[in-house]
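User: Please predict the structure of the protein below. I'd like the answer in structure-token form so I can feed it into my own downstream comparison script.

Assistant: Understood. Taking the following sequence of 142 residues as input:
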Amino acid sequence: MVSDTDDTPEVAVADTELESPAILDRLASKRDPNISFVGWASVSHLGHMKMAYEDGADVNTRDAESGATALHYAASMHAREIINWLAKRENIDYLIQDNEGRLPSALAYEVSDDPVIGRFLVKKQNEQAQAQGIDIRTLLAS
């Protein structure tokens, strides 16, 4: 099928075909860098995340369905390399809650069962909250 605004045909891909790097590259090239960034984070693919970031993606972009950021996905998947890379970005926001009201630190504890990542993210979110004059207890209660 061809869209009205673009001469490029849409690509329909079965889930099993997504393991092909060529298919992944074709899909990534058709997306907005922000959508690509969160999508690659959801499958723990740092290399493609970096490419989307270089194309202008915002590290705090939220997934349209879950409200999760790349940091949420990385925390929930025990993706330390991605968390380390994200932590080096100046504008990373540790205080964004997903649609269920969870911070990335909560996912590190609850989903990936990684207290080391959880403690690291709690430290970062507390530092950020303090720097912004936010009472973390109020944020968590909302």
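That's the full token string. The longest helix spans residues 115-131.
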